[in-house]
Structures are given as C-alpha cells and as structure tokens.
Amino acid sequence: MKKWYRLAGVVTLIAVVLGSIRAYQLVNQEPLATSSSAADETAESGLTLKDVTLEQPDEDGNLLWRVHADEVTYSPDQKVAVVTNPDGELFQDGEPIYRVKADRGEVRQDGESIFLQDNIVATGVQNDIVLKGQELEWQPESDLMVVRRQITGTHPQLKASAQEAKVYNREGRLELSQNVVATTIEAPFLRVEAEQLTWLVKAEQIESDRPLKVEQLKDNKVSDRAVGQQGEVDLAKKVVKLTQDVKLELLELPLEIFSQVAIWNVEQAQIVIPEALRANQPQQKVQITANRAELNLDQQIVYLTQGVNVVEGQKSQLSSDSLTWNLDSEQVVAEGNVNYRQINPPVTVQGPRAVGQLDEETVVISGGRVVTEITP
Fold this sequence. Notes:
1% helix, 30-stranded antiparallel β-sheet, lipopolysaccharide transport protein A fold
C-alpha cells in the first residue's frame, strides 16, 4: 500500500532564509522537496515549515490523521518530521474519533504512525473519554492508540489513572496497566485498584484477570472492601463479581468473609456467596462456616445455609441447616438439625430450632423434640 502525506504551510529554511513559501507536498517514500531549488541544496541540513497542516490518507483516500503544527522541522534525511504544538484529529473509516494536542511530536516518513509527547490531551469524539498523559502513539492500521506516563482519564461513568492505556476504538476497549486506580463518578461510589484493567466502554464494564481490589466509599472513607484474584464490575448496575481467594471486609461492622466467589450488588447493598465460605467477627471471636450466604448490608443481616457451623472462641459451637445472623443485635436464629454444644459447663442440646444471643452466650432450643445432654 502506498504511504504518503500532505502538508501545507510556510517554508523556512534553517540554513538559508528564503522568505515565506507556500507549499503543497505529496510524498511517496521519497525525501520531501519544496518548490524552491534552494530547498534541495539545503536538504541535508534539514528544513523547517511554519504554520503547517499534515494529513495522512489511506490508499482509498480516507484520512488516517490530520495534525496542524506551529512548526515542522525535518531531519537531514527527511525521514522524520518533528512538530511543535501539534493539534489535530485521528480518523477511523474516514470519521474523526479523537481530537489530540500536545507540546511536540514526530511523524515518520511512511506515515504509518504518529507520536506526540508532553502534555497530551486526547478527547474522544464518539465515546466522551478524555485521556491525558505524556506520550501518545497512533497506529491506524492496528486500530491502536497508546497513551503512556502519568495517565489520567475521565468519562461520565468513570475516572481513572495508570501508567499506560491502550485504546482499541473499533472494539470499544481500553486496557489500563501499572498502578491502575478507577473510581466511579456517581453514587454509590466504587474505587477499583489493579495492575491491569480492561474497560469495555460500550458494554459499561471493567474486568481483570489479575488481582484486584474494589472498595465502596462513603463520605470519602472506605466502608466495605472486596479483594479477589480476578473479577469484573458492571458499571451500569453497580454489580461486582470476584473469584479466586476472595476476601470481603465490612469495615463498619466489622466482619471478614473468605470464599472463592462473591457477587456484590452495591446498588442494592447485597452480597451473594454461592460457594463454601468462612466468616470471622473479631470483636466477638466468632467464626462461621457454611456452603452459601447472602448478606443484606443495610439491615446488617447474614443468611447462611447448607452445613452451617458457628464457633464462639473456646466456649461453644452451634451447627444447623440454616442460620440468620443479625450483626447489629448479635442475635442468631438457627433452624433444621440444630446441635448446640457448650464447653463450660459441658452441655449438648439438640432440636429443630434455636435462638441465641452471641454477646450474652445464651441459646434457647425449641420446637418439636429437644434432647439435652449434660456431662458431669
């Protein structure tokens, strides 16, 4: 495919001042030339164009990029053009997709890529994303825009920071890497931290196959935290799903929960744990295991089912088919095959239902046949 780009501006030779020359160039893998024979004589020392617009079309004539610059200086071999204060547009299928500006940049002779440096601002025409950084590279044939170094990004749904961003505009995908921090714009506020994060802009979702941390912020303070080895966040529904070595921390209660899967509906203040879990409440020295749990964070109630086992320090143990745990009042209601054992004095009580108060270490077994065993 032929590579060429066009330029228009006022030509100023570095070595020899020739005055203002308006030029329109077509380049096809050949050194640049001007309409002045003096330009050819000084090409080896490079030349400078002022007030220039550079354009790169594809083989069908559709623009790939267009950049206006205060000044363009060509290398002695005229294979690289250095631009000052570039301000222009990146195109896809003949339509502008990003407006870009920077302090300086470089254009290679073949026009396959354009490099911008220092104080980069790239504004999405179609997706409302604004990316800022210190380096930008546009590779139109690969549908890839890369922004590097001290990146910040804003969008109506999300703001983020990282060290590198790869933008695949056609797919609506943005890959952030290195010290990634993303925060939602609207309440309930979430902050996501990871070393690598993929933002699917059109699908309104962020995901990572690397360890990530998701925190809920209330009054600029962390109220709840979830950590997993991989996960995803539905930005529209405010639903977080984490997998592999998941740890939940409800800091206001406090309560810690460990599992392999957790689905956190932040909007509805609910957490579903569909697999085996372990929960710790450090203040009461309570440990609970079960095969499934649901949490209502607003009401501070935990519903546990399937093989529930509650251990309170070295004092007592309670097992049942299901358990409702009120974290505020410390009351537990156990149902189905209830078995309660107390260490001192040694007592075992079995029955269909039990109501207990964890902070007072009292349990009442009721309903149907109740069996009590007291060990002298």
